[in-house]
Design goal:
mainly alpha; 4 helices
């Protein structure tokens, strides 16, 4: 029970800290969150297509393809 109380106090501390941020701090956090969203949501969709789906259909075929590429990469 004491652990749950400590976790609650931990989150209250951060919540209180974010509430008392200056306008500059809030703007910086907004920029950070926006950049993370762009990097992980938007760029991933356009720059990293799911290549394995075009090579193999089942999970076994995908695993075999990856293993084959890893072994050939070591040989070369």
């Amino acid at each position: 029970m004491n652990t749950i109380k400590n976790i609650g106090n931990f989150f209250k501390m951060y919540l209180d800290g974010f509430k008392n941020l200056s306008k500059t701090g809030k703007a910086l956090w907004a920029i950070i969150i926006l950049k993370l969203f762009i990097m992980f949501a938007i760029m991933r969709a356009f720059l990293f297509p799911n290549f394995l789906n075009s090579v193999a259909k089942t999970d076994e075929q995908k695993a075999e393809y990856v293993a084959e590429q890893l072994i050939e990469g070591v040989k070369n």
